[in-house]
Structure formats: C-alpha cells, structure tokens
Specification:
Length: 282
C-alpha cells in the first residue's frame, strides 16, 4: 500500500539519544515512549546504518510482527536536534505526512508486517537517524533506529597493535583522495563505554605527511595509556570546507592478561556529517 499526503499536528518530543524516557505527544495527551516491551523480535529496523549517494532512492526497512497497535509512526532526528515526527498511519490505513515532509519525496510502503520508509532523490538534508515506532493505547514503542548517511569518497585506515599500561599509543588516520593535506582541521574524539556523547581530546598531533602518488594524507595522534579510564572508542574527524567527516572509530579494550591493552581497529569508509556533530561532543 502506498502512502498519501496530509497534514497532522506535530507531537513535541525531547531527545531520543537516551532511550526509554517520558515524552509528550500533543495529539492526545501523554505517552510513555519505551523500547523495553516491543523487542527486536516484534519491531525491528535490521540496518542500523545505511549509506547512499546524493540523488539516490533509499528504503529504510521496518518490520512489526504484532498487529495489536493503534498507530504507526516514523521519526527523523538530525544530529544534535530533537526528533521530528514525519509520517503516521492509523490502523494500517493510508499514511499521512506531516507539514514539511509532504513534498512527495517521502513514501511508506506497507505490507504484511512491513512499514518501510522510502526517500526519493536523497539530499544532504536527509542525513539523520530514522525511527519506526508504534503506539498501543498510551505507549509509544520504537526500534533502535537507522542512521542514514551520504556515501563519501574518503576512507580511513587505523593502526592496530597491542600496548601495555604506561605505553604510548599512536592512532594513525589515513585519508585518501585529499589534494591538500594542510587543508582540513583534524580532531580526535573519545567516547567512553556507556556514554552517548563523544568528547574532543588533547594529545600529540604529529605533523601530517602525504603520499603524492596515491593522493593519501596521513595524520597521527599519540597519547600515553595511564589508567583504565583511557579505555573507550577513539575517532578521527576532520572539517573539510565546513563538511565534517568522521570514521567509525578505534576501540581500546583490556585484554585477558589484566595489564595489556589491545587496540581493536576497524577499516571503514568515512561518513559525512555536519557541524552540528560537535554539539554532541561536549
């Protein structure tokens, strides 16, 4: 079933960065928003991250196995902003898009337990987290969401090696297809376990160098491992002409030996975010 457009009043909600909080929906009083009761087996967005190019069409999947709900909703949350309701369907009838999202670029495909959000002709403004939720009586249940990002030409390689307490550790960020290594402002971020926000950290930022044959720039960050509090996930981020790109991070964990730290690195594409990202870092 394809969606139709109509304007509805907007709920007012606070940040979805902390799940299972009390929110207010202006349509019909108070609702308790939670993810504890509708589990991954009953409401599920199988792809936590999706990438697409500008101009592409994207489908963000949502599966709801139970049918005993009154309303299904989609939310969009920009980085550092409050989530916005964008679409809703009463009792699996036609989908109504709220004001600001009713220009025909969005659609919802509904089937037997499927409520997929379609985004046509993707733009930079579509970079956000998208949440599928259902309302049953006075509760809104939602999944963990999908972050939609722009596919970037940049990629990152991070150093991997074991280190001991009091050792220096060097993270190496390698950026391809960069024509001027001095151009970007490079930041290093740390997110501790259990924290929803990353913070900018200080350290010895070695001079960058370039491998001209491959248009590759290399940036190093050196820090000394002193305490268990140094565990966490470290990110390389940079500002290129006002566009923030950030890697998926290097995780620093404690090995079984008790005093050996192990740097677990990921090879990943950079993804594109915007200056609002840094509002999440403080």
């Amino acid at each position: 079933m394809q969606s139709t457009n109509s304007e509805y009043g907007s709920p007012h909600v606070t940040s979805l960065l902390s799940l299972s909080l009390l929110f207010h929906l202006s349509m019909s009083g108070l609702f308790f928003i939670t993810s504890c009761c509708f589990t991954a087996q009953t409401i599920n967005q199988p792809k936590p991250v999706q990438q697409a190019k500008i101009g592409d069409s994207v489908t963000i999947q949502c599966y709801v196995l139970k049918n005993d709900f009154n309303l299904i909703v989609w939310y969009k949350q920009l980085l550092g902003k409050k989530p916005q309701p964008i679409a809703m369907s009463y009792y699996r009838n036609n989908v109504h898009f709220l004001k600001g999202f009713d220009d025909g670029r969005l659609g919802v495909t509904m089937g037997n337990g499927t409520y997929h959000l379609n985004i046509f002709r993707m733009t930079q403004e579509d970079v956000a987290s998208y949440y599928c939720g259902v309302i049953k009586l006075t509760a809104l249940y939602f999944s963990s969401g999908t972050f939609l990002m722009i596919t970037s030409k940049y990629s990152v390689v991070l150093l991997q090696k074991p280190v001991h307490l009091s050792d220096n550790i060097t993270l190496q960020c390698t950026i391809r297809f960069m024509d001027d290594c001095a151009k970007p402002n490079v930041y290093w971020l740390k997110q501790s376990s259990g924290e929803s926000r990353a913070r900018i950290i200080d350290g010895n930022k070695d001079a960058h160098f370039i491998m001209a044959a491959t248009q590759t720039c290399v940036y190093n960050f050196t820090m000394r491992i002193l305490t268990l509090s140094d565990t966490g996930t470290y990110y390389c981020a940079m500002d290129v002409d006002g566009e923030i790109i950030i890697g998926h991070g290097t995780k620093l964990t404690i090995a079984d030996t008790g005093n050996l730290f192990e740097v677990l690195s990921l090879y990943s594409d950079f993804y594109t975010v915007y200056s609002s990202f840094f509002s999440l870092c403080h």
